[in-house]
Design a protein that fits this description.
Number of strands: 9
Largest sheet: 9 strands, mixed
Structural class: alpha/beta
Helix content: 40-55%
Distance between the termini: 108 Å
Order of helices and strands: HEEHHEEHEHEEEEHHHHH
Shape: flat
Radius of gyration: 34 Å
């Protein structure tokens, strides 16, 4: 067999495998729109729980998280055809695609005591599209709720500035495939719903956390820098969009619109030049000022730390530094000089306490 024949056989094998995978995905997920008429709403707490579950598992066992195999149950409140997905909890890893229904029943009974208005409405996992394993798990959960839904989150869906929300919801339905009835997933529409308390909580979570020391100043600085960063990122994205438009128009991929080109040219002429000598000099001066202030703040912080260390050392060894080898006039011989740089009100109080203890 020649090398050309081997390459053709490999290509045919790869094409067969890709076509089989595409056919399997098409078989599992139906292209027909959901006809159940359900109005599904997702609250932010569910998305935060799933994100936290994925983050913790990724740090503990990256291999499992990389495969997208995390599972959990979602709780919702249903009123007629309206479903509000409000909460969720984690499920143990299924062994050989077998769900622990006993654990699910026990957990559901415990949560019923705290959230009596919430019912088991489905489950969640990670991935881009459902696979055969997801379908087997869903078939088992239909024993608990015959109208269970499947929520799938794609962690990489927001990479690269994607505009589409990386969450998909699927219902299950029976379909005729190859003259046989088969359970398939049907994608269902949904919406994000929040109340006032949830908006406040999400806004608090989205803000960077700071320590208690200098909290007000740090919060103001972080908020200012975050605002500037978002503005610069938005400006950069729009400039890239204009650049891509001009590139596509130059390569004749899209028709050239002279009105848009004139507007871009006018915008470029209004923009200040950043490569002038005056700008470079002013930028260098401001940068030196910022570095100097940061250097002074570091020195001040270091001196404060050193002063605290000296105070602790003197307190631990019972010695207080004096101004010289001789006693100053008006001072009792052999007594610490409370007017020395290492003295002060705290040392005077400590000296009186020691005298009281000895007496």
């Amino acid at each position: 067999m020649s090398a050309m024949d081997i390459e053709e056989e490999q290509r045919s094998t790869e094409n067969t495998g890709s076509s089989t995978t595409a056919a399997t995905t098409t078989t599992i997920v139906s292209s027909v729109q959901a006809s159940s008429g359900l109005s599904i709403s997702i609250h932010p707490l569910v998305l935060l729980n799933i994100s936290d579950h994925y983050t913790r598992l990724k740090l503990q066992d990256p291999a499992i998280a990389k495969k997208g195999r995390i599972y959990g149950a979602i709780l919702a409140q249903q009123s007629g055809r309206d479903i509000d997905i409000i909460n969720s909890f984690e499920l143990p890893m299924p062994q050989q695609d077998k769900v622990d229904l006993d654990y699910l029943a026990m957990k559901q009974e415990q949560l019923k005591q705290v959230f009596p208005h919430l019912d088991f409405m489905g489950w969640y996992s990670l991935g881009i599209t459902p696979n055969e394993s997801d379908l087997k798990i869903h078939e088992q959960l239909l024993q608990v709720n015959e109208s269970a839904i499947y929520l799938q989150l794609d962690p990489a869906g927001i990479a690269g500035g994607a505009k589409e929300f990386p969450v998909k919801i699927y219902e299950s339905a029976m379909d005729i495939i190859d003259e046989q009835a088969r359970l398939v997933f049907v994608r269902a529409p949904y919406q994000i719903e929040t109340n006032e308390a949830e908006r406040v909580a999400v806004d608090h979570v989205a803000k960077p956390s700071t320590s208690s020391r200098d909290a007000s100043l740090s919060n103001a600085m972080i908020s200012h820098l975050t605002t500037q960063r978002n503005a610069i990122a938005m400006l950069h994205a729009r400039i890239q969009f204009l650049q891509q438009y001009l590139q596509d128009a130059k390569e004749e991929k899209i028709p050239l619109d002279h009105d848009i080109v004139r507007q871009i040219s006018s915008l470029c002429r209004r923009s200040p030049l950043m490569n002038s000598k005056e700008f470079n000099e002013q930028f260098a001066v401001e940068m030196d000022d910022v570095l100097l202030v940061a250097y002074l703040a570091t020195i001040t912080k270091g001196m404060d730390t050193m002063n605290d260390l000296i105070d602790k050392f003197n307190l631990g060894h019972g010695t207080i530094q004096t101004t010289g080898s001789r006693d100053q006039p008006g001072m009792v011989p052999g007594k610490p000089n409370i007017m020395s740089p290492a003295g002060g009100r705290r040392r005077m109080l400590r000296m009186f306490d020691r005298q009281r203890q000895h007496s």
